[in-house]
Specification:
The complex is a heterodimer of chains A (275) and B (186).
Chain A: H1 5-14, E1 30-34, H2 35-38, E2 46-52, E3 55-66, E4 77-83, H3 99-115, E5 124-126, E6 130-142, H4 147-161, E7 163-169, E8 176-185, E9 193-200, E10 204-207, H5 211-216, E11 219-225, E12 231-235, H6 244-272
Parallel strand pairs in A: 4-6
Antiparallel strand pairs in A: 1-2, 2-3, 3-6, 5-6, 7-8, 9-10, 9-11, 11-12
Helix pairs in contact in A: 3-4
Chain B: E1 5-15, E2 27-33, H1 41-57, E3 66-76, H2 81-96, E4 104-111, E5 117-119, H3 123-128, E6 131-138, E7 144-150, H4 155-184
Parallel strand pairs in B: 2-3
Antiparallel strand pairs in B: 1-3, 4-5, 4-6, 6-7
Classes of the chains: A alpha+beta (275), B alpha+beta (186).
Protein name (chain A): Exosome complex component RRP43
Family (chain A): Belongs to the RNase PH family.
Keywords (chain A): Acetylation, Cytoplasm, Exosome, Nucleus, RNA-binding, rRNA processing
Chain lengths: 275, 186
């Protein structure tokens, strides 16, 4: 397995299964922990911990107040930041964020923007004066492949958990008053879910790759769908070429996966609300 | 295309630093420099897209333990920047004479609010569009090498854009042929 990993893998793929016993189209067990009671981050306004097999990703959302930009006076900000600290996998070194972390941050920012998950106008409190800034920190604690799926999932779960306190601007003093007693949940319009596939040898497509599979794969595809079946993103950074039909196949599977994930999130949230 | 211009410089295969060399293939590095400012997160993600696209076509196994550097400088941006970078990269690879498994070209499609598909949009058309899809299409069987989308679209619209992009790819490959012919016929 260590000397000829590709050959080892090919033998399994010929039998249409994978070394960890999964089918080619099967996902690893997904678990989600949301909120202050179950999840670690008590200082954050919203947090979630997602485990996709061994891949563990934690997302913390902090909301702060700031003045909106001059050219978009009625929009707030969402700033996603993906970190891959060196504790999550031996190939990541400490220091400035590597290319993979930056590309992942950009991907998450694109997904938020494309899917209109949070509309920036909703984050505005007073046009031109005050708006919310949501700092979303996504940190990988254990990297075993499929970072993008887990990150998007963690982000979605954390945002659903965020409660923003009501802020009013005092007319006379012009200062803002934060009312911590009254909290409203964030308005999330769409629920994007990412599904990643790894391409092997130009033909085979496997779903939810582990780190080992990702290293051996000749390419990856990530498809983000929302609940209406619309594509928010088709991210295929190079790698072996795919025909349109194969891509269509991936999209159909992504749509099915979306339904499963949505049910999981709804179930977890429902179990939290009666507090 | 249009007013967008990107300058591509390719260096290699050259000796790689020991920390960067790969034992069985060439190590590719892509640097994208924007017109103004320092390269940021957006450039990094674009570099990753370009790098993985090029890695898929360059026959790296013929040059193990070497480094190939591709530097792209944006001279002007009037829309369709990513596909311009893709085309510049491919032509640079051709010009350098590196062994390639296939050629690729970049095509950008903009989906306008009323549903019409526009190829190679200008900056203003990109802003008005509902979604922008960029594809890198390979010359062998017109398969999709790279794909990025901005904005959301339905599955049928994506397939239509893909089909349009594949048709446009034929024109672009013809342009490659003509350019190379002109260069080497002197």
């Amino acid at each position: 397995r260590t000397v000829e990993p590709l050959e080892y893998y090919r033998r399994f793929l010929k039998e249409n299964c994978r070394p960890d016993g999964r089918e080619l189209g099967e996902f690893r067990t997904t678990t989600v922990n949301i909120g202050k009671c179950l999840c670690s981050i008590t200082t954050a306004d919203g947090s979630a911990l997602v485990k996709l097999g061994n891949t563990t990703v934690i997302c913390g959302v902090k909301a702060e107040l700031a003045a909106p930009a001059v050219d978009s006076a009625n929009k707030g900000y969402i700033v996603p930041n993906v970190e891959l600290p060196s504790l999550c996998a031996e190939r990541f070194r400490s220091g400035p964020p590597g290319e993979e972390a930056q590309a992942a941050s950009q991907f998450i920012a694109d997904v938020i923007e494309n899917s209109q998950m949070i509309v920036k106008e909703d984050l505005c409190i007073a046009s031109g004066k005050l708006a919310w800034v949501l700092y979303c920190d996504i940190i990988c604690l254990d990297y075993d492949g499929n970072l993008l799926d887990a990150s998007v999932f963690a982000l979605l779960a954390a945002l659903k958990n965020v409660q923003l306190p009501l802020v009013t601007i005092n007319e006379e003093t012009g200062l803002s008053e934060v009312n911590l007693k009254q909290k409203n949940p964030l308005i999330i319009r769409k629920h994007p879910v990412a599904t990643s596939f790894a391409i092997f040898d130009d033909t085979l497509l496997i779903v939810d790759p582990t780190a080992e599979e990702e290293d051996l794969a000749t390419g990856t595809v990530t498809i983000v769908t929302d609940e209406e079946g619309r594509l928010c993103s088709v991210h295929k950074p190079g790698g072996s070429p795919l025909t349109g039909a194969k891509l269509q196949d991936c999209i159909t599977r992504a749509i099915t996966r979306h339904k499963e994930v949505k049910k999981l999130i709804d179930k977890v949230i429902k179990s939290l609300t009666p507090k | 295309p249009g007013d967008t211009s990107v300058l591509a410089g390719l260096y290699g295969p050259a000796e790689a630093k020991i920390s960067k060399e790969l034992p069985d293939r060439a190590a590719l590095e892509v640097l994208l420099r924007p017109k103004v400012g320092l390269p940021g997160v957006l450039e990094r993600s674009r570099e990753q897209l370009l790098r993985q696209t090029c890695e898929a076509v360059i026959l790296g196994v013929l040059h193990p333990r070497t480094a190939i550097s591709l530097v792209l400088q944006v001279l002007s941006d009037a829309g369709s920047l990513l596909s311009c970078c893709l085309n510049a990269a491919c032509m640079a690879l051709l010009d350098a004479g590196l062994p390639l498994a296939a050629l690729f070209c970049g095509v950008t499609c903009a989906l306008q609010p009323d549903g019409t598909i526009l190829l190679d949009p200008t900056a203003r058309q990109e802003q008005e569009a509902r979604a922008i899809l960029t594809f890198a299409i390979a010359s062998t069987e017109r398969k999709v090498l790279m794909s990025t989308t901005k904005g959301s679209c339905s599955v049928e619209e994506m397939q239509q854009c893909l089909a349009a992009a594949q048709r446009a790819a034929t024109t672009i490959f013809q342009f490659y042929r003509d350019s190379v012919r002109r260069r080497y016929s002197k």
